[in-house]
Structure to design on (130 residues):
């Protein structure tokens, strides 16, 4: 009976990146993993996509940015106050915060993980649950 517990499992693959891997969620429809990376020293958050089977990096360094107006192209939440809310099919839902001093989520952006683009956005929406 004790012989069953002597074998150790080995990971199929490993992924490393400097900084903190803050959160990771499985995209069941596309067999991928989306992750949130946080660089503590530079205070920048970005997102990456891995192949679930091989661990290969599909894309990385996606930064959520304003899409229009005079601040188009600038990082939302100063590039730090953003996060991964949830996933559905091939979409990853990202959020910002109402204010850096308030931990309430504000806004919702649907990131198409196939194209690495925003499908739709509602920056004015307060989001409660998924």
């Amino acid at each position: 009976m004790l012989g069953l517990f002597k074998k150790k499992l080995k990971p199929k693959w490993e992924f490393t990146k400097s900084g903190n891997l803050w959160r990771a969620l499985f995209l069941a429809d596309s067999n991928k993993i989306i992750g949130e990376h946080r660089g503590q020293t530079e205070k920048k958050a970005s997102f990456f996509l891995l192949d679930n089977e091989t661990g290969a990096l599909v894309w990385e360094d996606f930064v959520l940015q304003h899409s229009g107006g005079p601040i188009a192209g600038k990082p939302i939440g100063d590039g730090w106050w953003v996060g991964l809310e949830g996933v559905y099919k091939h979409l990853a839902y990202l959020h910002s915060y109402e204010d850096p001093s308030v931990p309430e989520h504000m806004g919702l952006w649907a990131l198409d993980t196939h194209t690495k683009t925003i499908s739709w956005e509602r920056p004015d929406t307060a989001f409660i649950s998924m």
Summary: The longest strand covers residues 102-112. The chain has a mean pLDDT of 91. The chain has one domain: 17-122.
